[in-house]
Amino acid sequence: MILGACLKYLKDPEASKDAAADIYLRLLDQLLEHDVRYFRSWLQRVIERHCLTILQKKKRQATIHLDDQELELKLWKLGLFSHLSEEYDRIETDHQIQFAVQELREEQRNCIIGKYFEGKTYKEIAAEFGYEERSIKSYIENGRRNLRMKLSHLKNEE
Amino acid sequence: MTNQLSEHDEEAEGTCLSLEQLTGYVERRLSAEEMATIESHLQRCPLCRDAVEGLSGYKGKQDFRDMLKEVRERIQAQEAPR
Predict the structure, then answer these.
(1) A98-131 b/e with 16+ CB inside 10 Å = b?
(2) Residues of chain A contacting B74 with CB distance shorter than 8 Å
(3) Is A29 in the B-facing interface, judged by CB distances under 8 Å?
(4) Domain range spanning residue B22?
(5) Smallest CA–CA separation between A66 and chain B, in Å?
(6) Domains in chain B, number
(7) What is the pLDDT of residues B3-29, one digit of tens each?
């Protein structure tokens, strides 16, 4: 029942399996917290809210991903590197870009290089540097903003 | 949620559909009488309607029982560290 309803909202079998498991695991706690008179109506709302939260989170991630693509496109247009596999080497040989990256605060630099140039996930960066995943997101946002400003400046000079 | 149940509906709708009834209905392998009974329930129970709608989209793509088995495994995996 729960899995079927999750499939309706999420339209993704894997996400629906996770959502159904999460809903089931939280059900007992939530039942103890709330005065549930009409179980089915209540369960229906619980499923819908849970799926809506997942969809909103997914949308936010998609937005962040789009921003990442914009940055990569901008870097590519600047002729700094042509594709991801060569990015790090090119940065190593380009003193201006190397300087821009090196100028970032340590946390931002570690996260930017880890995510964009080495393709690491937030979890992998967290494990390597001991940062919290929430903080990594913030370091990347700030580092990306700083790097974008520095790269725009370089473009103007050319 | 659209079409939430009223107090009256919730009392009147009876027991929700079992796994066998849900899958049997979606896969159209029940008798005409059973299908009619289920349709009658679906008219009054949006929760079961949601489940049927969700399952209908995956009919034939993956066995629903296998999917449920995976859900149980995920539940057990998350319960284990507790």
Answers:
(1) eebbeebeebbbbbbbbbbbeebebeebbeeeeb
(2) 17-18, 21
(3) no
(4) 2-79
(5) 29
(6) 1
(7) 444 544 555 556 888 888 998 999 888
